[in-house]
Amino acid sequence: MDEPFGPEYVRPPQKDCPDCPCCTVDLCKRGRTSLLECVGFTADEHKDTVYGCPCSTVTTPHTAAWRAGLVRVTRLAREMPIGLEAEALLAVLADGQDVDADGELFAQLAVRGLATRTDDLRPVITDLGRTYLAARDDERATAAVQVVDVDKKDRIALVEVAAWRPEEPVTVLLDQVTADTGLSADELPEWLAAEANCHAPDTDRLVLTGFSVTPDPPQGWTDGESE
After folding, report:
1. Beta pairing partners, 172
2. Which of 184, 191, 204, 211 would suit a FRET pair with 123, their CA atoms being 20 to 30 Å apart?
3. Topology of domain 75-137, per CATH?
């Protein structure tokens, strides 16, 4: 039987991503919705080119890596905070002051993604660093969470937090919910409980942690009166 593509099949070129100089549209779509980022779906010989792609990195809002970063530093702040001296240094950076970036304290912040250096090597706080400081001061409480939609392909779930803003969907990582609850995506009930900072000004600053299975929500949980 004749080979319809000739003796050697050459894969047609894929469309370049319009938002970065390193990837295809398909690669960035996959990387944006995965903690592996674009580099995790790239052959070894091309990883250096794709590493840090802005379409999937932790510093780009609404990527899977970004959502996971918010959860990570919030849990860090609440469950295993950094030392007081390092935290004080982070607060100084948040005020825009200059600090010694060559010391051990700054290294502790940098390795956790809470601080970094600019192109001119000036030390600055990152968005994750600001999230950490906010989580240290935020009032967090158990809130009822209604599961509105589950997207198993993109690994996200849409939920509503009645004690925050009823009927305003919030996107969370599906793998976070299933890992916390021990349930598969198909087993998730309509109602869950989670720790939330219900004074957050918008969805980008609302961080849900510690999802758990709950019976039918108690009276008051669905009308913004949860404690």
Report:
1. 157
2. 204
3. Arc Repressor Mutant, subunit A (1.10.10)
What whole-number distance in Å separates Cα of residue 30 and Cα of residue 36? Answer: 9
The tokens for 127 are 């968005």
Residues pairing with 171 in the sheet = 158
| Portion of the chain with pLDDT greater than 70, in percent | 89
Residues in contact with 174: Cβ distance below 8 Å, sequence separation at least 6, in sequence order: 150, 151, 152, 155, 156, 157, 185
Q: Tell me: the pLDDT tens digits for 159-189?
A: 999 899 988 999 999 999 999 999 999 999 9
Q: The whole model's pTM is what?
A: 0.87
C-alpha span between 105 and 184 (Å, rounded)? 40
pLDDT score recorded for residue 195 = 96
Architecture of domain 141-223: Beta Barrel (2.40)
Contact 179, 72 (CB under 8 A): no
Task: Delimit the domains of the chain by residue range.
Answer: 14-57, 75-137, 141-223
